[in-house]
Design brief:
By secondary structure, the chain is an alpha+beta fold. The protein is built from 30 helices and 34 strands.
């Protein structure tokens, strides 16, 4: 025995831990307490927040066409921004009245640095002479972050006026913003108010009053200024001239003109009203007007905590503040999915621990199985401490990694415990067996763990956005497996040196049954009194003890004494045969042949590949797009028709339930149906959009959790809704039905970008349309509907000025353009303060004049001759060369300062996106594209 011990080695770290077992006990206690605390405090979210160096620059230029926005704003900004080093992609969209630019940097640039650089370049561009100086607000520049998406929506509806709903919504908004987890709250479904000055063209011209006279009168009177300090009796008193309007009646009674005591009040030539701005959006829930609150949390904050606080606030407000018949619902609550995911994965971990211990029970016995089993929770707790210290959140990727590691993290413990038990069985003391047993296997298990970690390391180095998203999986696995190695070498070695013993004889079944029954009864009592988590834990423990004492112990002995030796004999026979004579060469050659055969079969029978699995949706999005130029009222009518179709369909899921002693009808499938028309109705896949979209609508159908759906798959519901909409609308109404993504927001599966060099935008659109038609003729199954990301056919009315004639009459094109713009679109001339709110004072023609082309063009521009003092009135129509109605495109998109048009489509459920794209690529090899164009397939 002594000779044998002299040949054995120890492992210094394990030897130290065995000799200092009290320190190890302290480490165990600290790991459990700190690990549990870290787990409880770690923020929960659905997907990890990836810090993408992507910056958005949005510039509003209301009333300007897409071409004007591109020429005056987008190109000027792009030219400056593109000089920044580290830019990977520069994409822009110029639409009616709005320019949006997305600057994507490589990951060597931090988001903070990227934001600073872009802001500096935008400031330089704003100083350029060609950049407009009459923007209503400065360009909006911010970092695009996953945390910018709402974590939930709060919907308020009922038989109340918009002002009442606004007050209720404002109350909730102010209260929710007080929570430290919340960044901001945005209101939808409400229109801002304005002081509208609608000018009667005939009356104004009869008194020789122009827009400039009205603007001057309002802006000069709505004026407050400090006059300095007045010294009286050794005291200084500030003098302030307060001329701001106190009510809009003061605006009505404003004197606009006074010539030779001929006084003209504003009310004489205009109607002044304090009303909501023209409708830019509608919002409804189940066809009733609704006010929506989009709640956005701060980056890194706990989503579940934020959601719970908001739910509690709403319950308290409904009970104490709001009227009973005010309807409040919460939709798109991300915390519900996260709670389900966390709960399911927690259950998976607990069940995994139980199953691992049960399996080990048959090979190692109960005591040794428990030694190994303890490695699971301890490794998890240590991992939580590390994950929390590096600011990781509990999200789908981290939790999935923990489940994936469940089976691997016990490997080291099994090797250590089994080897220590073998030496103990050979006659060593517990301490010696632990020291030398771990020493024998320490380097092999370190090497084994290192090779496993090395296999996952390349995943952590995956470049690009998806690499930033997927790196959470390998990093978490590396942390968990490294923690399990520490547990095996330090904690398992210490516990075995103190507690391990050779199992012999039968357990005291009577005592075991009593203990198991006691735990079972105690757990049941705790469940009855409402302590469900602790009750379930004790009940499960009691049942497992009873199961082991009454069933598993005898069966495990039978397996170890009867079945395991048989398996070992078969294994021995196989090994002896494999190493006999030339058999090793045959086995090695066969293995190599099998490897090549597997590669061959993989090439012949290529498996379907998709980045994320086809998920069962928690909500549907139905996007409706009318022809470009459609008025919002017309879009609203079409949307109402779509809402009625959905309401008629979901009736099939109604059920009668008893509530407070009354029979009520409740839909067990659909939680809410929210319709948005205009603002906020664009597809999120198109990126941030702040431009007006009067021709677009979105209907969101939110489902209850899976446990309430009675086994109905929401994919089937989505397909039935798609069938319900077929053929119900005119051909010019474009309908797209999609679901919530299974992963982070990405581009559509089919995304073909066509870029033109030295080509007009109309030519690029024509080329993209030809390619779209070519792909349509392939009849590839799985493509939902190909479409261009640019809408054509937008009505436009170019007005060509006779420049020479205008200059002869002392008029400029700018004067004429500003006069038409003010008459039609309007002009903000001042602010009207009401409490803490500032409202615009806008002047323009009354409706009957501004929507009449003849009235617009016959308006007169007044100016006074500086030499003669004579007042001249020049009708705009007298200097117009021609007015020709045309159609144009809805937007101008650019990629790296080159014009871009994209062909996009979703892929239908049941079809593989990679296979569809492969068929498109094969087909496009036969497509002859003209010179000057290039195309590429991007997408998810």
């Amino acid at each position: 025995m002594g000779d044998k011990q002299s040949k054995l080695k120890d492992f210094k770290l394990s030897t130290w831990s065995i000799k200092n077992n009290k320190t190890v006990y302290l480490i165990i206690v600290i790991a459990i307490i700190a690990g549990f605390s870290a787990y409880v405090s770690m923020p929960r979210e659905s997907f990890p927040e990836v810090n993408i160096p992507k910056i958005f620059v949005g510039t509003a230029y209301p009333g300007s066409s897409a071409k004007v926005v591109e020429d005056k704003i987008t190109r000027v900004l792009e030219k400056e921004i593109n000089t920044i080093k580290g830019i990977e992609k520069l994409k822009s969209t110029s639409t009616l009245g709005y320019s949006s630019i997305v600057v994507e940097f490589d990951f060597s640039v931090t988001p903070t640095e990227a934001l600073r650089k872009v802001k500096d370049k935008v400031d330089i561009a704003k100083g350029k002479t060609e950049f407009p100086k009459d923007l209503p607000i400065p360009p909006n520049i911010f970092e695009i972050s996953p945390s910018e998406f709402p974590i939930l929506n709060v919907n308020l509806s009922g038989d109340y006026s918009k002002d009442d709903l606004r007050d209720y919504a404002e109350y909730l908004k102010d209260e929710i913003k007080k929570f430290p987890e919340i960044d901001r709250v945005e209101l939808r479904g409400l229109q801002d108010k304005e002081v509208r000055v609608e000018i009667d063209k005939v009356k104004a011209e009869a008194r020789n009053i122009g827009f400039s006279d009205i603007e001057k009168a309002i802006s000069q009177e709505n004026f407050t200024m400090s006059g300095g300090e007045l010294l009286v009796n050794n005291y200084r008193r500030t003098v302030r001239i307060d001329g701001e309007f106190k009510n809009f009646e003061e605006i009505e009674n404003l004197i606009v003109k006074n010539e030779k005591l001929n006084i003209v009040y504003l009310r004489d030539i205009a109607k002044v009203s304090f009303v909501e701005k023209e409708t830019e959006s509608y919002a409804r829930e189940y066809e009733r007007p609704v006010v929506m609150l989009d709640v956005i949390k701060k980056s890194g904050e706990n989503l579940i905590t934020a959601s719970d606080k908001i739910n509690l606030l709403i319950e308290d407000s409904k009970r104490d503040i709001f009227p009973e018949n005010l309807q409040i619902s919460i939709t798109n609550d991300q915390s519900e999915m996260i709670k389900d995911t966390v709960s399911n994965l927690e259950n998976s971990i607990i069940i995994g621990i139980i199953l691992v211990v049960l399996v080990l029970l048959f090979f190692l016995g109960l005591r040794n199985a428990l030694f190994v089993g303890i490695a699971i929770p301890l490794s998890m707790f240590i991992s939580f401490i590390i994950l929390d210290s590096i600011d990781y959140t509990l999200n789908m990727m981290v939790l999935f990694s923990l489940v994936l590691a469940l089976g691997m993290l016990v490997d080291n413990g099994i090797v250590v415990v089994e080897n220590v038990y073998r030496l103990l069985d050979e006659g060593m003391s517990r301490k010696q067996a632990a020291i030398y047993g771990v020493g024998e296997v320490a380097m092999p298990i370190i090497a084994s763990t290192a090779t496993t970690l090395a296999a996952f390391l390349p995943l952590a180095l995956w470049p690009g956005i998806m690499g930033q998203f997927m790196k959470f999986l390998p990093i978490t696995l590396i942390i968990v497996l490294a923690s399990s190695l520490f547990v095996a070498l330090v904690i398992n070695s210490t516990l075995t040196s103190v507690l391990m013993k050779i199992e012999s004889g039968k357990p005291n079944k009577k005592r075991g049954a009593i203990v198991g029954a006691a735990f079972t009864v105690l757990g049941t009592l705790l469940i009855v009194i409402g302590q469900i988590p602790w009750g379930m834990a004790l009940l499960t423990l009691g049942l497992l003890i009873l199961l082991y004492v009454l069933v598993l112990h005898d069966f495990a002995l039978f397996f170890q004494n009867r079945l395991l030796p048989v398996l070992e004999r078969f294994y021995e026979i196989g090994i002896r045969f494999a190493i006999k004579g030339k058999n090793p060469y045959l086995f090695f050659g066969g293995t190599i042949l099998l490897l090549f055969l597997s590669f061959f079969l993989l090439g012949v029978f290529t498996p379907k590949v998709e980045f994320f699995p086809n998920n069962e949706p928690t909500y549907l999005n139905i996007f409706l797009k009318m022809p470009i130029g459609t008025d919002i009222e017309s879009t609203n009518l079409t949307t109402k028709k779509a809402e009625r179709l959905i309401d008629d369909y979901i009736v099939k899921y109604n059920d009668t339930i008893s509530l407070n002693g009354e029979q009520v009808i409740k839909n067990f499938m659909v939680k809410s149906v929210i319709a948005q028309v205009g603002e906020g109705a664009s597809d999120p896949k198109d990126g941030p959009s702040f431009a007006p979209t009067p021709n677009k609508a979105r209907i969101t159908v939110s489902f209850y959790e899976t446990k309430f759906r009675r086994g109905i798959n929401t994919i089937d519901v989505m397909n039935e809704v798609r069938e319900k909409f077929e053929g119900r609308f005119s051909a010019d109404v474009e309908i797209t039905i999609g679901k919530n993504p299974a992963g982070p927001p990405m581009e559509p599966p089919v995304n073909i970008e066509i870029v033109g060099t030295n080509k007009s935008y109309n030519e690029i659109i024509a080329e993209a349309s030809e390619m779209k038609y070519f792909i349509d003729q392939m009849n590839i199954k799985g493509i939902e509907k190909l479409k261009l990301n640019i809408e054509t056919g937008k009505p436009e009315l170019p007005i060509i000025i006779d420049r020479e004639k205008a200059r002869m009459l002392n008029l400029s094109t700018q004067q004429i353009a500003l006069a038409i713009r003010t008459a039609l679109f309007g002009k903000e001339v001042a602010k009207f303060k009401e409490g803490k709110d500032d409202h615009e004072i806008n002047i323009r023609y009354a409706r009957k004049y501004r929507y009449n082309l003849d009235e617009l063009l016959t308006q007169k521009i007044n100016y006074r001759d500086q030499q003669s003092g004579k007042l001249h009135e020049i009708p705009i129509s007298s200097v117009i060369k021609k007015v020709v109605p045309v159609t144009t495109y809805s937007a101008v998109k650019r990629l790296d300062e080159k014009p871009l048009v994209t062909i996009v489509s979703n892929v239908l459920d049941g079809y593989n996106a990679n296979e569809v794209i492969a068929q498109i690529k094969d087909g496009l090899e036969n497509y002859q594209i003209d010179t000057g164009y290039s195309w590429s397939i991007t997408g998810q």
